[in-house]
Write the structure tokens for this entry.
Amino acid sequence: MSDYSIGHLARQTGYAVQTLRYYEEIGLMPAPPRTGGGQRRYSAAHLERLSFIRHARDLGFDIDAIRALLRLAEHPNAPCTDVDQIALAHLASIDDKIARLQALRREIAQMTESCANRNIANCRVIEVLAEHKQCLHDHH
Amino acid sequence: MSDYSIGHLARQTGYAVQTLRYYEEIGLMPAPPRTGGGQRRYSAAHLERLSFIRHARDLGFDIDAIRALLRLAEHPNAPCTDVDQIALAHLASIDDKIARLQALRREIAQMTESCANRNIANCRVIEVLAEHKQCLHDHH
DNA sequence: CCTAATCCCTCTAGCTACTGTAGCTTCAAG
DNA sequence: CTTGAAGCTACAGTAGCTAGAGGGATTAGG
């Protein structure tokens, strides 16, 4: 029955202590038992769950998705279609973000490259940003 | 002396009305004059400034950067090195985000592709997320 | 001129996923 | 038994808005 303090658990998983209390508050981590003085004492099961959460967060899953994944992980005999769907949806949203960022990248790179680097009156960056006629039609 | 209501300005720029009040509150837009009844009345100069802001936001500049750009745009004879630097810094942060997302994309794509699509007990996605030995060493 | 519809006003709270602070208590080592 | 590190709660703040309550102003039609 290994039991860890909140600080120990935090160091093991690379989280800040406040984050663990926050995860408990929002119900992502179960409330652990306390010492007589009111301090939290965690078990190996807590560590395992938190590691899962940490890894999923590192991969960019949002907390609702992680909640769903944890719930699904409790049913080993269920088919994993739901799990795959969460992962695929996440993949799609990443692809979407990448595409948007690449579009931005192109526009901004073009702005900076075509700037003559003289003064602000003929700075291409400022010009592009101020050209609201184009902007209003292109972006909405 | 064209003057617009807040709703008109919002429609012109594609913003929500609340956002314009918010921009005024944080000092990004100047407070316009009011009618006797207390309603805001904007001028063409407001529209121009807001269009600039809108375009810059669409390109992903954060509000502090936009403040700086607007300040710089007021000095047409100054060199545009500061402007270019803001744009280049933004470009670098976009490149950084793209790189991170591509790394995530690879990991998640691999997870989903190697999943046998049976049940949760042998779902590759859940396995990877639960493998905290690997995870703790690879990611911190 | 009156009325109804539409717009606008302020103020407050909420969103994500945390992070930081203040002021206090508990624990573990020596 | 003392001391210093670590823990506790509660609240405020981050970015950039969005939504709602409970009212007042404006305007177009009749």
